[in-house]
């Protein structure tokens, strides 16, 4: 089994009210120096077999179809186990409308 992570973030041009709320709360809680916050989603998938390039392409398709909204979000797919990632490669998907 391999563990694959899909990170989904709003596209840079999309407003992120949750990120802005967190950014506004940080100074009130005594934290300084943060100039921007973007909030996204993280999916951890355990897949059968090894993290082959074909398997990572399948996960990328899952991210396009179900895990992200390609109109307003970008996503990145990567393998948690770095030794497997070096053997299989890392797939990044940024879908533009």
From TrEMBL:
Originating organism: Nocardioides perillae
Origin superkingdom: Bacteria
GO (cellular component) term, any one: cytoplasm
PANTHER family with a match to the protein in the record: PHOSPHORIBOSYLFORMYLGLYCINAMIDINE SYNTHASE SUBUNIT PURS
Subcellular location: Cytoplasm
Reactions this protein catalyses: N(2)-formyl-N(1)-(5-phospho-beta-D-ribosyl)glycinamide + L-glutamine + ATP + H2O = 2-formamido-N(1)-(5-O-phospho-beta-D-ribosyl)acetamidine + L-glutamate + ADP + phosphate + H(+)
Record-given protein name: Phosphoribosylformylglycinamidine synthase subunit PurS
Keyword annotations: ATP-binding, Cytoplasm, Ligase, Nucleotide-binding, Purine biosynthesis
Broad class of the protein's primary localization: cytoplasm
Record's keyword annotation contains Cytoplasm: yes
Assembly with partners or alone: Part of the FGAM synthase complex composed of 1 PurL, 1 PurQ and 2 PurS subunits.
Family the UniProt entry places it in: Belongs to the PurS family.
Enzyme superclass (EC): ligase
Lineage: Bacteria, Bacillati, Actinomycetota, Actinomycetes, Propionibacteriales
Record GO biological process: 'de novo' IMP biosynthetic process
Residues in the signal sequence: none
């Amino acid at each position: 089994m391999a563990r694959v992570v899909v990170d989904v973030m709003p596209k840079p041009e999309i407003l992120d009210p949750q990120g802005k709320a967190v950014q506004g709360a940080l100074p009130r809680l005594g934290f300084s120096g943060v100039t921007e916050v973007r909030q996204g989603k993280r999916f951890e998938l355990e897949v059968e077999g090894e993290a082959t390039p074909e398997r990572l392409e399948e996960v990328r398709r899952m991210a396009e179809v179900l895990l992200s909204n390609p109109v307003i979000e970008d996503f990145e797919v990567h393998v948690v186990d770095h030794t497997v990632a070096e053997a299989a490669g890392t797939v990044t998907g940024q879908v533009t409308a």
